[in-house]
Amino acid sequence: KQEVTQIPAALSVPEGENLVLNCSFTDSAIYNLQWFRQDPGKGLTSLLLIQSSQREQTSGRLNASLDKSSGRSTLYIAASQPGDSATYLCAVSTLDSNYQLIWGAGTKLIIKP
Amino acid sequence: EAQVTQNPRYLITVTGKKLTVTCSQNMNHEYMSWYRQDPGLGLRQIYYSMNVEVTDKGDVPEGYKVSRKEKRNFPLILESPSPNQTSLYFCASSTRQGTGELFFGEGSRLTVL
After folding, report:
1. Which residue, A1, A81, B29, B43, has fewest beta-carbon neighbours within 10 Å?
2. Is the four-CA dihedral B5, B8, B106, B103 of positive or negative sign?
3. Residue A100: exposure state from Cβ atoms within 10 A (0-12, 13-18, ≥19)
């Protein structure tokens, strides 16, 4: 059964630093992987979607990579800003789950001014 | 503006009093889904729908009902709410049977006394 893990659960860094958030999954037979952002008490916003055939996707200061063979994805945030503070979740879609997303628990990111 | 709209956003009710949380999307998406989010348990899928008149159970369907009579609407029904259904509920929609980018509503915070 697919499991998705995000470590660390929380991360605090000074403003301006580049940082990497990690997502690992146990079964490499994924259809795609999505990264989401959630602000406190709010809904989730999709940041990047990577198809299984892709290695990375970029949007502005965000870059997500995918390595299916090692069961890992990383979300790279360049030049972090206080407005990047949020919880970041990754989720994978697999054929075995009828394409329903399997979610990680998230990494809570705090960017200190 | 593309959006998923949930109502009510906040609700306090009592055990056993039937309630419905509405969800509507304006993106002509085939796929819609309901999640609940609880501290320490993350996001868990309740029900999903691949298209009109097609619904399936997610991971935690007990105590909930759904219907999909129109493409844009996917209401969540709690026939006899209990305190363990106190939670933050999210509706989401997507293209391509759920494998496209997932759009979330703002959430509905439900308290059952």
Report:
1. A1
2. negative
3. buried
Distance from CA of B42 to the nearest CA of A (A): 5
Q: Give how far B89 is from chain A: nearest CA, Å.
A: 9
Report d(CA A107, CA A95) in Å as an integer.
Answer: 26
Closest CA to B55 of B43, B72, B69, B40: B69
A89 interaction partners in chain B (CB closer than 8 Å): 43
Burial of B19 from C-beta contacts in 10 A (0-12 / 13-18 / 19+): middle
| Mean pLDDT across B46-56 | 95
Encoded tokens for B110: 């439900």
The answer to whether B98 faces chain A, any CB pair under 8 Å, is yes
Facing B58 at nearest CB: one of A42, A44, A100? A100
The position carrying tokens 């609700």 is B11
Binning pLDDT at 50, 70 and 90, where does residue A99 land? confident
